[in-house]
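Entry 14. Ran structure prediction on the chain below.
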Amino acid sequence: MRDVTFGRYYPARGPLHELNPSLKILLFVLFIVSIFISRSYFGLAVCVSFLLVCVFISRVPLRRVLRSFRSIIIVALLSSAIVYLTHPDEGALAACTLFVRLISAVCVSALLTLTTTPSEIADGLERSLSFLRIFHVPVRDIALSVSITLHFVPVLQEEAEKIYCAQKSRGASFSGSLSKKAGTVVSVLVPLFSSAFRRAGELADSMESRCYDYPCERTSFHEFGFSGYDVLACLLFAAYFLFIICVRVMPW
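Output, structure tokens:
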């Protein structure tokens, strides 16, 4: 459980931390697109190299980012094995491509949450999706849901660790047959869900007491503008994205 990095902000004074949240989310989406439009080994190598450069300049320890894909490494390997077996002609290339895509997507997602606070992500989402308001899409509620989810991930992780240690100190065994393991896991899940529902109720009461549903335009305590870092990031990413498109189009 301690290996979970999703939703955990890493405080630092790196260039990625200073970027506008809306721009960061846009570049994150475009990077995911660049991963999935790259079909050659060279294109994937460029994507991975660009990701490593972003990790280096973010001043986030590499091991913190690498922890993010430990939980899906088995899923990625199984998916790659299935692709390898079902595509005998291009099995190796297709399997490696899928594996690198999954790992890179998870790592860049972790990098986004490590360099952006949940409040900044919510604000960036609300501003990025503000055009959907003309279609009566509840953009503010969607951004709030994402923010609450990111806030609750580390909280529930710590709660699960406390319950796990408490059950273990009471003599609960998490080894043995599958049925025995299922029984001990239930002893952790039941109080965990109970705690989650209790926290959700307290949060709802707190939001209601602060008139969150009041029909008016809400303002932000911190207003994010565009700085020199944002302009430089746009130029560098535009060059990277155009290069990826050229790699895909050109028969290299």
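The chain has a mean pLDDT of 83. Will compare against last week's run tomorrow.
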